[in-house]
Amino acid sequence: MNLTSDVSVTRRHLPNIALIALIVSCFIQIGAQLFAVSVIARTVQSAPPRSFAIFEGAYGYDSSAFWQTVPPITSVLFLAGLVANWKTHRRNLLLGAFTLFLVGGAVAGFYLEPIFADIMSIGYRDQVDPVLQARAAKWYAFDWAVWVLSLAAGVALLAALARPVTADVPPNTR
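The chain above was modelled as a monomer; its predicted structure follows.
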């Protein structure tokens, strides 16, 4: 067994392995976001506070465990992907995707989640409030925008994977 060639093979494939793991995690998150915005958020904004019934009862919808787990995993995989691909032509695409991921997360965490919490604080009532419905519609539109940012990050990651793993070569200094 030749240990040197095994290490060489691992080093050669590490950028691809790290990037593929990141892409899988990122698209799991993008898929969950698509479900959340197209089903849950659409339902919530349709007729609040009556539509809040989706969260009521012993079996009400609650995806908090997913959102507390997957985005941190994706963040760690972004860092691993960046480190593994830092000296390649993929670096700029990975940095762009990571920036989109962070901007989307910041908008979600600092803007969308507080608005959602404020809307939900009203609580379920068997009526529709037009003013609340207008606020929820604005929240819903921003939720779609964050999903588009996430999708753009995922597409950038796929574009990075399509690039060959070649090291950046400094310009010839003659």
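Residues 37 and 141 are 9 Å apart (CA to CA).
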